[in-house]
Amino acid sequence: MPVKPQRPCSYPSCPELTNERYCSKHQKEIESKYNKTSRPFKKLYNSRWYKLRKQFLLKHPLCEECKREGVVTAAEVVDHVIPHKGNEQLFWDESNWQSLCKHHHDIKTAKEDGRFGNKNEVYSYPWKKE
Question: Exposure check for the chain: N or C terminus, fewer CB within 10 A?
Answer without folding.
Answer: N
